[in-house]
Amino acid sequence: MFINDVEQCQWIRQKFESPGVMQFSSEEKRTLLARLVRSMRFEDFLARKWSSEKRFGLEGCEVMIPALKTIIDKSSEMGIENVILGMPHRGRLNVLANVIRKDLEQIFCQFDPKLEAADEGSGDVKYHLGMYHERINRVTNRNITLSLVANPSHLEAVDPVVQGKTKAEQFYRGDAQGKKVMSILVHGDAAFAGQGVVYETFHLSDLPSYTTNGTVHVVVNNQIGFTTDPRMARSSPYPTDVARVVNAPIFHVNADDPEAVIYVCSVAAEWRNTFNKDVVVDLVCYRRRGHNEMDEPMFTQPLMYKQIHRQVPVLKKYADKLIAEGTVTLQEFEEEIAKYDRICEEAYGKSKDKKILHIKHWLDSPWPGFFNMDGEPKSMTCPATGVPEDTLTHIGEVASSVPLEDFKIHVGLSRILRGRADMTRKRTVDWALAEYMAFGSLLKEGIHVRLSGQDVERGTFSHRHHVLHDQDVDRRTCVPMNHLWPDQAPYTVCNSSLSEYGVLGFELGYAMASPNALVLWEAQFGDFHNTAQCIIDQFISTGQAKWVRHNGIVLLLPHGMEGMGPEHSSARPERFLQMSNDDSDAYPAFTQDFEVRQLYDCNWIVVNCSTPASYFHVLRRQILLPFRKPLIIFTPKSLLRHPEAKSSFDQMVSGTSFQRVIPEDGAAARAPGQVRRLIFCTGKVFYDLVKERSSQGLDELVAITRLEQISPFPFDLIKREAEKYPGVELVWCQEEHKNMGYYDYISPRFMTVLGRARPVWYVGRDPAAAPATGNRNTHLVSLKKFLDTAFNLQAFEGKTF
Ligand SMILES: Cc1ncc(C[n+]2csc(CCOP(=O)(O)OP(=O)(O)O)c2C)c(N)n1
Ligand SMILES: [Mg+2]
Question: Which residue range or ranges hold the Transketolase-like pyrimidine-binding domain (predicted)?
Fold first, then answer.
């Protein structure tokens, strides 16, 4: 244990070293016994009814149920009203049944393979589903809300998600000290020791915008000595080495001693609710069966398991003790067992009448009032996203001012603010100002905005400056965005720790708590998102399909080929597009509500804006939509300061909205009959193309159309564009390498729109292993080469497709 604080050390010493601290009344002992009965008999019941089903039983650590209940009881006693839990497979069904008190009937019907799902989505296995339940705590007689967050197989991935949700619940209740809302994280010993995200999550606990004011961690430590079980093998001793890293007290306790366990748990809860710091309870136990019930542990650990089979179950040991000391009679004990078995049998009987499975019964974060009574969106329209001009002007003025008196800002920043004032006067915006206006206008409408990531306050490219720093007074800061209107929603902008997996998971969890918040995570550079790949694959792209849960998180991923080398160039658009679920081969029905339907049906939205106005609208649309979808935005780097990359207020005022496709509007569009080639592109390459076209004098002959929304694919608008220029050669131009970027995604979709009658020629960089060259000259040469092809009107002559 590595605690430097004397008061805290004394506190722990007093709790464990004072003689006679562990005293229990007979009532408490009987409650503990009853809880052990439930824990053990629940597993027995499942084993009897479904002997060949995986359930990841708790046998060997049945004490986890009274342990968790004690933490909750004690916390409720200390004022906690809302507990958010994250846990892996081991004992999860038992926790649902006996801690959260999910209807047994609903748990049992999950074992029926013939049940039809009533909800959209592909569902998930029973030991991954989440849960939300409000109940009265029997011990304290106070209301308590418990939720268990749904999670994937990926061990520990849910940890930061739980913390983000907890932080959000604290924020929305004004519970800055974590006195009302707390989290509990349960871990397996191997995962706890081995998975890095555990430490990323612990590390967040000391950062003001990320702390949940302490979490109680419970480790189901079923590794006895050294083992050759490949699922549990690890090379370093546990958990002393872990203690150094997590900077929290770890209380080890023998899981075969239930009274010691609940004493330790109540001390842990008291620690959390006194010091608002993390604490770990290490339940040292064993695993009576294999990894799951179908597994044979004797294959690999024959001696250990011979020993385990000789172990007397904890319930029997404890019951014998209480009977011997006269706290309960054998008859009372047997009645307690019979009573719970009857409850299980009755629920089992009822579960057999169920025909339909409602995944919606397994939501961990309901959003009351957001959907209609049937859980559907209240409308199916996509509102206009423009705002009145005076709102834009007002935000522009605040964005270029210092709202606090006697606040000295850096001279370089004064220049930037003057630039903003100038743009506001001229009714134009650059990228940073457009973002300001999107955030500011949402704040005006009562939407909380939270932007998190490495260095987001200033912006990686030093363009944002949402937090001003007094040059004369240490740590004096000002966030002008919070000085827009007296009754605005709060704006949170926070520099995160240097983590992607942990922080993205955290923000995803944050976005789960409420639909009325715009929660954005920005990668330092887009390619760094891949260290958070598990959150993207397991939660963001699939979350709704698995758990019918909407999530409106926004990922801002700086992307663009600027000769900066293989790492700082690509946000890997191809990966996001490959995971998009819109059908490349189905010719859609272009109904009136096609645009919004498509957004409703997709698993996420992928955009690459070419103008500040486009960025402004898509951020606003994200919240104005009547449902929530994750939004992936490839954001610019060099365009942040590009003189052409500006938008006028005219493109943002009331009546304007997000344009999924920006058609050519120059000379070529005025005389489509003259046009020889129509180039489709997305993002920054548009500016390179326009410049090259004009230098080659091809403005009349080549049209350039931009896709702002790449996925779901704007089939309708692409069709319209292609029809506007009948018979002309169609080209897709991208700056990324051919096996990357957008080409593999757009190509079959173009074929579908065009009825496979015309080709879309590829123009861009050749296929490559690395996303970008490390050599600036090679970068420029390859740029010139593909721009030449883009405007060589003979390039595809005679070629077949
Ligand atoms: C990130 C990740 N890697 C590998 C696995 C495969 N796996 C499932 S359970 C398990 C062992 C877990 O051991 P432990 O954390 O001690 O939990 P226990 O099953 O002993 O309760 C492994 C390796 C996984 N689910 N997630
Ligand atoms: Mg284990």
Answer: 429-642
- The residue whose CA is least distant from atom 13 of ligand 1 is 190
Strongest mean pLDDT among 44-53, 64-73, 143-152, 280-289: 64-73
Specify whether the CB–CB gap between 649 and 428 falls below 8 A: yes
List 520's β-bridge partners, or say none: 451, 554
Q: What is the dihedral of CA 763, 766, 771, 775, to 10 degrees?
A: -110
pLDDT digits (tens, 9 = 90+) for 483-532: 999 999 999 999 999 999 999 999 999 999 999 999 999 999 999 999 99
Find the Cα–Cα–Cα–Cα dihedral 102, 103, 108, 113, rounded to 10°: -80
Lowest mean pLDDT among 33-47, 73-87, 346-360: 346-360
What angle do helix axes 389-399 and 411-425 make, rounded to 10 degrees? 170
Q: What is the pLDDT of residues 374-403, one digit of tens each?
A: 888 999 998 889 999 999 999 999 999 999
Residue 44's closest CA among 329, 337, 328, 257? 337
Q: Which residue, by CA, sits nearest to atom 15 of ligand 1?
A: 188
> Hey, what amino acid is at 117?
A
Judged by DSSP in three states, 67 sits in: helix
- Report the C-alpha gap between 441 and 427 in whole angstroms: 16
pTM above 0.85, yes or no: yes
| Dist CA 520 CA 511 (whole Å) | 9
As given in the structure block, the two tokens for residue 773 are: 């060259």
Give residues with Cβ within 8 angstroms of 213, minimum separation 6.
170, 177, 178, 179, 182, 276
Q: How far is the CA of 41 from the centre of ligand 2 (A)?
A: 22
DSSP 573-616: HHHHHHT--S-SSPPPP--TTHHHHHHHHSS-EEEE-SSHHHHH
pLDDT surpasses 80 at 176: yes
- Condensed to tens digits (0 to 9), the pLDDT of residues 646-666 reads 999 999 999 999 999 999 999
Closest residue by CA, ligand 1 atom 17: 188
Question: What percentage of the chain exceeds 90 in pLDDT?
Answer: 79
Whether the CB-CB separation of 800 and 771 falls below 8 Å is answered with no
Q: What is the pLDDT of residues 595-649, one digit of tens each?
A: 999 999 999 999 999 999 999 999 999 999 999 999 999 999 999 999 999 999 9
The CA 289 to ligand 1 mean position distance, Å, reads 15
CA dist., res. 522 & res. 8, Å (int): 37
Closest of 659, 796, 675 to residue 733, by C-alpha: 796
- Please state the atom number of ligand 1 nearest to the C-alpha of residue 187: 15
Q: How many CB atoms lie within 10 A of CB 153?
A: 12
- Ligand 1 centre to CA of 236 (Å) is 16
Burial of 276 from C-beta contacts in 10 A (0-12 / 13-18 / 19+) = middle
Give the strand pairing for 709-711 and 605-608: antiparallel
Size (the chain), residues: 801
Distance in Å, CA 90 to ligand 1 centroid: 9
Q: Which of 59, 124, 155 to mutate to test the pocket of ligand 1 (most atoms within 8 A of CB)?
A: 155
Helix (H) or strand (E) holding 123: none
- Separation between Cα atoms, residue 3 and residue 446, nearest integer Å: 42
Radius of gyration for the alpha carbons in the chain, expressed in angstroms and rounded:
30
